[in-house]
Amino acid sequence: MIEQKINEFFGDAESTGFGTGWWSGILSAFFGSLSFGGVLCLHFPQLLSSPELRLHYPIHTMRVLIQCLIVGAILFGIISSILRKKKILALTGMLLAIAATALGGSSVQINDTLHDGPAIGLDWFLLDLFLMALIYVPLERLWPQYPKQGTFRNEWTLDVVYFMSTHLPLQILSFLVLLPATQATKYLGVPVLQEFIARMPWFLQFFLAVVVADIAEYFIHLALHKVPFLWRFHAVHHSSKALDWIAGSRSHFVDDTLVRGFILAPLMLGFSQSIIMAYLIFVTIHATWTHCNFGPHAKWLEKYLVMPRYHHWHHTSQNEGIDKNFAIHFPWIDKIFGTYYYPDKWPERYGLDGEEISPNFFRQTIEPFTKKKKNALKI
User: Fold this and answer.
1) Is 327 helix (H, G, I), strand (E, B) or coil?
2) 71-107: burial string, b at 16+ Cβ within 10 Å, e else
């Protein structure tokens, strides 16, 4: 219902192709939202910014970025208002940019001494949303596997809520909460193993960490499919009937807790904090990539690295693809354990097979905890 209202309020019956003012309106609203949120983070850094990231920000660069977003929102808003009859997207973006400017823009000074403590983490949400959208939306629009699937396809607002929940501390084991957990390497690490791995070249350490993490994730992923109680939570992730870069964010917090815990546990035994951090960044980018609506492929690379078509088959509701392709990074892991399936075509259907779950975020969060009979374990 909310998604329908949003689409009706901002959308219209005009074409949404390039040169129609649609994408300039989208960029205006997007940049305006980011700039307004960025200025709020400058005003209330203790409350809104993440303690783990504050010390690492190149503050001058961040201020320049905010200013560029403000200017971009206004420029794209003007272009959209000229090209398009319905001006709501353009006006929204420009009003947000003007509001950000009225609040001080990128010149807002941070005078208070900041300290560690609970924070909302709005900065990380805005920054990651900007970077992921900047990378993946153009790829999906220029080279989509499913051209009729738009960026704002059905249930896009639900996935935005999930994306937000994994960045703001509504979710206990979000990426930012996992960062301090890497400190546990100094307590859980096996010194002999750590010293042995530390002697390896950095890239070899990183590659080994990816292999260890993928094997660990393979087995917890398998359990999420085969254990009925765990499937209740993982079914949320498989409920997407259309895959794109943001669809991968749809995941129950219990699912995330188990997967990330099983990944971190073996990594903490022998790998340094820098390697674990590098892996967390890699898995964020690669997992997003594998859910993309991106058609081109490189056959020579597909043998060694999971690509979108490979993981899309894991999400199909077609019988031949159910309970296949559990590996996240390396297809050869599925070959070893007999769960490899990779035909030279794309799936025709996605989602759950014979199951229906609520399209509401809060009900999807609560219902897996309640006792109710499921159909067969699928997907």
Assistant:
1) coil
2) ebbbbbbebbbebbebebbbbbbbbbbbebbeeebbe
Cβ–Cβ < 8 Å for 151, 247: no
Instruction: Work out the average pLDDT over 264-275.
Output: 87
Mark 33-50 as b/e (b = at least 16 C-beta within 10 Å).
bbbbbbbbbbebbbebbb
Number of H helices and E strands in the chain, helices first, is: 19, 0
Q: What is the pLDDT of residues 257-266, one digit of tens each?
A: 889 888 988 8
Which pTM does this prediction carry?
Answer: 0.88
Sign for the CA dihedral angle at 362, 363, 368, 369 comes to: positive
- 309/240 Cα distance (integer angstroms): 16
pLDDT digits (tens, 9 = 90+) for 27-65: 999 999 999 999 999 999 998 988 878 888 899 999 999
User: How are the residues of the chain apportioned to helix, strand and coil, as percentages rounded to the nearest 5?
Assistant: 65, 0, 35
Structural tokens at position 56: 């690492």
3-state secondary structure of 144: coil
